[in-house]
From TrEMBL:
Originating species: Paenibacillus agricola
Keyword DNA-binding in record: yes
Record keywords, A-Z: DNA-binding, Transcription, Transcription regulation
Coiled-coil region list: none
Segments forming domain HTH araC/xylS-type: 178-276
Organism domain of life: Bacteria
Protein's name according to its UniProt entry: AraC family transcriptional regulator
InterPro entries for this protein: AraC-bd (IPR003313), Homeodomain-like_sf (IPR009057), HTH-like (IPR037923), HTH_AraC (IPR018060), HTH_AraC-typ_CS (IPR018062), RmlC-like_jellyroll (IPR014710), Tscrpt_reg_AraC-type_HTH (IPR020449)
SMART domains (alphabetical): HTH_ARAC
Keyword Cytoplasm in record: no
UniProt xrefs under Pfam families: AraC_binding (PF02311), HTH_18 (PF12833)
Amino acid sequence: MFYDDIRLDNELNFVKKIGTLTEHEMHVHAALEISVVLKNNVKYQLCDRDYHGKPGDVYVFRPFEPHWNLAEDSDKPVEWTMILFAPSIVRSIPEGYKLLTPFYAADKFSPLIPADSSYAQAIQEATKQAIAEGEQQLPGWRAKQYLHFIDILVTIFRYYETVQQDVLSQNKTDQGIIEVIQYMLSRFSEDIDINQMIVMSNLRKTLFFKKFKAITSLTPNEFISRLRLQAAVYLLDHTTKSITDIAFECGFHSLSYFNKQFKQYRGISPRDQRNQFKK
C-alpha cells in the first residue's frame, strides 16, 4: 500500500479515467473521492471487502481509505469519472460540512450507490453536465461545474440519510456518534470539548471512544486534527495568508504545535509545503 500524494490544482477536480486489468497496490490520499462508473465492469478493493461495479454505479471513498480499482475484463477497459475534492470546498455551502458525513462515517455506510437507484442516476447526470462544462469552458463554466458538484453532494447525503435511516433508528449508539461527527465537521476550527461530545452522544465514555474509533478509524482528537490539517494544506497551497494566520484560522493555538503536527501529517514543514506547491 502506498500514499498517493495527489496535488489538487483546484479544490474540485472532475477527471475522466480509463483503466485496464492491471494488479497494483492499494493507495491512499488526503482528497475526498467520488467514483462514477461510465463503461464496463470494475472491481474496487477496500481493506475489508471487494465491490464489483457496473456502469451507472457510484462509489464514495473517505480520505485515507486504502482502495484500488481495475477492469474485470482485460478486453474491456473500464471508464469512470473520478471526482476529487478538498474538504475545505464546502465551507461556503450552508451546512456544507454536514454534507461530508458519508465520507467520514463510511464504516456505517456502504461506499456503493447502486446504478438502479434514482440517486445514482441523478449523480450520473450531474457529473455528465459538469464534465461537459469543463470540456466546453464557456463563460462561467467553473461556477456551473461547482453547482453540479453541490447537487452531487446533496444527492449523496440524501441517499445515506434515506437508506440508513432505519439502520440508525435501530441502533441509537451509532446515531449518537453520527451526530457528533456532523457537529465536529461543522466546527473543527473551534475549541471542541470532548466531554461535551460524549454527553451529546448519550454514551458512556469508554463506549463513546470505542464506537467513534470503529466508525471513523480515528480517535476524536485525531479526527479533529486531521480536519484542521487538511484545511491548512489547502490554505497554504492556494492563499497568501501567513503560516501563523493559517495555523490560528484552522484551530491551532500554537504555531510550534501546528508546525509539529503538520510535519507528522505531511512529512514536511508548512513552509516546505507552500514552496513545493509553488514549484
